[in-house]
């Protein structure tokens, strides 16, 4: 039995979830695939240890977030591809929702990597502020502040979404 | 709001594919384990080679430099191409750029104005000589003739005339806190269109530098302003919402009144040619609109599926540019293939001339000077 068999099983179960997470963090397929491969290479190398953790998928997500943030620093803010892929099979009557998805991903691309991670963890992964803080290794106050700034920026850079993002008062912790 | 945002993110995440990287990760992990053993050996060998003068790392410092004949890209496309830390000219030269390019525009004197990712604004001439014009800037626009520029940071806007590698006739104004960015500048420099972004959406406003500091007004809500007409006095833009857009001409001197409305459906982006022809990207490809009377007439269409493209522009639909009034160029990626520089000729609807772009950098096109 290979030391990587368990890792393959893990990916069979969580590959889709982690792919979607990578896509939201990066905003395009190429970068998502790169991020996932980079992070999973580290995970596979340490799989015997990671597999013993209570929540391996949470640990993998954490590696992805940190790789995403540190990769951004390393690349010295190279421009991200602001154009999400147009879904295959797009049809005209789905154009509005397609444009909305593109606007969402493009707006996320305007956030800093850390803000983006906060938004994805907080709202896509349904984590509490405390959980996000633990995931990122920052204080709860930092998460609150990053969330506030991220949402303000999302409304500003994606005025098309402002109404959708505005039909409530405050985000609950 | 959290439910709405979750729903938007769920929807966006559905565009993800299942990236099959498991085996690649396993191979990478095996190599990493191997490197733990081989690394020290490799380091010793490298030191030995350097000592012997056989291998001199660092001689080639441009990490994103394309490996083969990039000059052909520019020459055949009819435009200069900026890639990573270099500009490749139509004449075949490769010039180093001070830093990673964020925005690049051609200037009337044949050079470029470059805003790099560190926020430094540079003038670069055709010999490669460079001169820093400003620091800590975030936005840059030029007029269609390449003689006036406007740039902005968080709290200021500046408009100036480009005189060689110097800025003259400089006017700077403070702007209120928030996101107020220059969008277009008229060739005479008398009017700068600014976009003010707030929680309630974008509004457009004018700053007339000859009249003093910018005084914000309530602004005018438009979906988008995309370019200027040939006379430089009328804006080409869109009204409506994301799913139902209307291509129209807008008169900023008379209360942003709009002309006839040409319904276009959902457009992803629009670029306006020197004489007002519109190239629009939608979810299925590109389409041209020619000004006719008060409106626009739909012209040629280029369909994504026909050419196997997976997106309307690798660096964004706004990275497309008009080389002249009949030719537009843009980057696109072909499914299963490399990123390509594409040329669309409006006289040949549907036809595409593709030029393989070497390298893996994220390129930008230098908008050609008109007039």
Automatic annotation (TrEMBL), chain A:
One Gene Ontology term of the molecular function aspect: sigma factor activity
Stored Pfam families: Sigma70_r2, Sigma70_r4
GO CC terms in record: DNA-directed RNA polymerase complex
SMART domains per the UniProt record, alphabetical: HTH_LUXR (SM00421)
Entry keywords, A to Z: DNA-binding, DNA-directed RNA polymerase, Sigma factor, Transcription, Transcription regulation
Mitochondrion among keywords: no
N-terminal signal peptide: none
InterPro entries recorded: RNA_pol_sigma-70-like (IPR039425), RNA_pol_sigma-70_dom (IPR014284), RNA_pol_sigma-E_actinobac (IPR014325), RNA_pol_sigma70_r2 (IPR007627), RNA_pol_sigma70_r4 (IPR007630), RNA_pol_sigma_r2 (IPR013325), RNA_pol_sigma_r3/r4-like (IPR013324), Tscrpt_reg_LuxR_C (IPR000792)
Superkingdom of origin organism: Bacteria
Any one GO BP annotation for this protein: DNA-templated transcription initiation
Transcription regulation listed as a keyword: yes
HTH luxR-type domain mapped to chain residues: 108-162
Family stated for the protein in its record: Belongs to the sigma-70 factor family. ECF subfamily.
Protein name per Swiss-Prot or TrEMBL: DNA-directed RNA polymerase sigma-70 factor
Organism (species): Actinocatenispora rupis
Record lineage: Bacteria, Bacillati, Actinomycetota, Actinomycetes, Micromonosporales
Automatic annotation (TrEMBL), chain B:
Residues passing through the membrane, by range: 35-56
Domain of life: Bacteria
Keyword Membrane: yes
Keywords: Membrane, Transmembrane, Transmembrane helix
SUPFAM superfamilies named among the record's database cross-references: Tricorn protease N-terminal domain (SSF69304)
Protein name: Uncharacterized protein
Source organism per UniProt: Actinocatenispora rupis
Phylogenetic lineage: Bacteria, Bacillati, Actinomycetota, Actinomycetes, Micromonosporales
């Amino acid at each position: 039995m290979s030391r990587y068999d368990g890792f393959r099983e893990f990916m069979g179960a969580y590959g889709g979830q982690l792919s979607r997470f990578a896509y939201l963090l990066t905003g395009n397929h190429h970068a998502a695939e790169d991020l996932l491969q980079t992070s999973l290479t580290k995970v596979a190398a340490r799989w015997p240890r990671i597999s013993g953790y209570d929540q391996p998928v949470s640990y993998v997500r954490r590696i992805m977030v940190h790789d995403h943030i540190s990769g951004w620093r390393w690349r010295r803010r190279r421009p991200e591809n602001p154009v999400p892929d147009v879904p295959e099979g797009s049809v005209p009557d789905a154009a509005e929702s397609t444009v909305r998805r593109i606007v969402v991903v493009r707006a996320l691309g305007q956030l800093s990597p850390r803000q983006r991670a906060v938004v994805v963890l907080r709202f896509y992964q349904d984590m509490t502020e405390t959980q996000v803080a633990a995931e990122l290794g920052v204080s709860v106050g930092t998460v609150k502040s990053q969330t506030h700034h991220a949402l303000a920026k999302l409304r500003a850079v994606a005025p098309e979404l402002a109404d959708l993002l505005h039909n409530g008062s405050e985000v609950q912790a | 709001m959290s439910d709405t945002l979750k729903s938007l993110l769920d929807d966006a995440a559905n565009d993800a594919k299942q990236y099959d990287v498991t085996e690649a990760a396993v191979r990478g992990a095996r190599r990493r384990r191997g490197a733990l053993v081989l690394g020290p050996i490799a380091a010793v060998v490298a030191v030995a080679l350097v000592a012997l003068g056989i291998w001199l790392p660092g001689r080639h410092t441009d990490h994103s430099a394309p490996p083969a004949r990039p000059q052909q890209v520019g020459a055949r496309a009819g435009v200069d191409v900026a890639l990573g830390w270099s500009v490749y000219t139509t004449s075949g030269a490769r010039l180093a750029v001070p830093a990673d390019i964020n925005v690049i525009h051609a200037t009337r004197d044949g050079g470029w104005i470059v805003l790099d990712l560190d926020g430094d604004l540079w003038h670069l001439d055709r010999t490669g000589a460079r001169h820093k014009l400003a620091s800590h800037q975030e936005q840059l626009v030029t007029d269609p003739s390449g003689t006036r520029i406007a740039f902005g940071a968080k709290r200021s806007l500046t408009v100036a005339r480009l005189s060689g590698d110097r800025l003259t006739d400089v006017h700077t104004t403070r702007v209120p806190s928030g996101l107020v960015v220059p969008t277009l500048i008229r060739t005479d420099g008398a009017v700068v269109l600014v976009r003010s972004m707030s929680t309630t959406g974008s509004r457009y406003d004018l700053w007339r530098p000859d009249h003093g500091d910018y005084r914000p007004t309530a602004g005018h809500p438009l979906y988008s302003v995309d370019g200027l007409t040939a006379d430089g006095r009328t804006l080409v833009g869109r009204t409506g919402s994301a799913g139902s857009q209307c291509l129209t001409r807008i008169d900023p001197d008379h209360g942003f009144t709009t002309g006839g409305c040409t319904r276009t459906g959902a457009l992803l982006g629009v670029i306006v040619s020197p004489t007002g022809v519109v190239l629009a990207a939608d979810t299925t490809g590109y389409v041209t609109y020619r000004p006719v009377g008060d409106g626009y007439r739909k012209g040629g269409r280029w369909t994504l599926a026909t050419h196997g493209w997976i997106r309307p522009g690798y660096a964004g639909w706004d990275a497309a540019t008009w080389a002249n009034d009949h030719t537009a160029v843009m980057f696109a990626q072909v499914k299963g293939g490399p990123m390509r520089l594409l040329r669309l000729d409006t006289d040949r609807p549907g036809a595409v001339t593709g030029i393989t772009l070497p390298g893996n950098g994220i390129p930008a096109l230098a908008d050609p000077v008109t007039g």
